[in-house]
Gmad2 immunoglobulin-like domain-containing protein (Cohnella yongneupensis), 198 residues
Amino acid sequence: MNNIKGFTIGLLAGCALMLAMPTMAATVKKKTYTLTEADYPIEVNGLKYANAQLPILNYKGSTYVPLRAVGDLLGASVEWSAALKKVEIRGDGSSVQNNAYRNIKVSGQGGHYTVTGEGRVFEAVMSYAVEDGHNYLLEQNVQLDEGAPAWSPFQLNIVIPAKHIPSNGTLMLELFEYSAKDGTKINILSVPLETFAP
């Protein structure tokens, strides 16, 4: 009887150990990946991704960009659902936006542009610049009616002198704000104003 009892206890202990081992192995063993910072740009529909704090990374020839940044470039919202424990991406790609700027619309041509949208920026100070692919042609700050977390509408009337319009290239508007922590540019959103060809 003692032999049967000992055998049964040993069998149960062995089964419990066999069931626990895969679970322990799954929680202990994690794969490590070595990523390098990419030395090439990412553009989506002519919009360049740039964020020094969340850089573009490369792993074995594949490019990795923060998911929210890709959503911003595509005009999609990227949210973490704590209840469902998953990332949810929604959008049709028809608008360009990020955490600080949304509903951006551009009209005009030949150096005269009107840009409208909404900003949600710290202390209601939004910043913008226009560049020709090589140099900044102007950089300005604008005081909005309300600061974050509220969305505040804005309208920019941008004039680029004829002598600064590129004969071949794209004038890009860069919307951003300066970090209250360290003064770096954050929430950068690049929007094409006009493309010129010879």
